[in-house]
Amino acid sequence: MNINRLEADIEAVITSYNQGSMILEAVQSVCGQTLLPERIIIVDDGSTDKYSLDVLNSIKNNSVLSVPITVHFQENGGVYHE
Question: Largest CB tally within 10 Å, which of 10, 23, 63, 64?
């Protein structure tokens, strides 16, 4: 198995809604893994609390993390029901 090829095929998605401290913990956990993902995508579902938004913007603007991160902000979609 080619480990380098495996690394290139991994992406991590973190979802959040008003979870500032948990977002940071999740990002740190992913960045500390043995096999790093190609990138981390954070999807924020319309957070409204200032602390969460500050954390997300800090992560978005941090260029020294070991993994590139994309933060996607969207309006709150609520709970999905089929």
Answer: 23
